[in-house]
Amino acid sequence: MNHPHLERRHFLTAALALGASSLARPLWAQTTGQEFILLNPAQPTESAGKIEVLEFFSYGCPHCADFNPLLNLWADKLPADVVLKKVPVSFGRAAWGNAAKLYYALQTTGDLQRLENKVFQAIHKDRTNLFEEKSIKSWVAANGVDARKFADAFSSFGVQSKVRRGDQLAHAYKIEGVPALAVNGKYLIGTLQFEQQLAVADKLIAQERRTTGNK
Question: Which pTM was predicted?
């Protein structure tokens, strides 16, 4: 059985339900049953000399929460010529945008690695509302983040620019559901079980290594 994605049209409901882990039915993206699709046109990457893997995700997505531990274990074993970049998406909604800003603000303050799993847990297990600025700031302060540094980062032009860039990438990659993996600007991996997605990513990475001459 394929693993569901959280589709764009259902995302706000899920976010406002703080994860919506009790959704009545699976949600499928347009690539169900396929290992991958070729992106047309191919997208430029930002990691010179590296094979770039993008994960499009949101903290509000319960499937992203389930996928994150497996993805991190996989990323820890990547060879030096491969880089994983996580891209939080907002799909143009303010609540989702705040979740994306949370990601980039924690990245700016240096607390992302320490708190990333806790953010998913807070939303999907503890039912904490981390989609509104006030509750986000209260939560991060309670979890040992410098409140002033975080507030400055959260409202900064740099963080807002990254959120906009993430949405632009999601549009360019034709992302309709999350989590979604893309490899080197050329391939969008289908809606498969998590382990299968990572296996396909490994296969495409190896193919790109042969094509580009990366060693």
Answer: 0.84
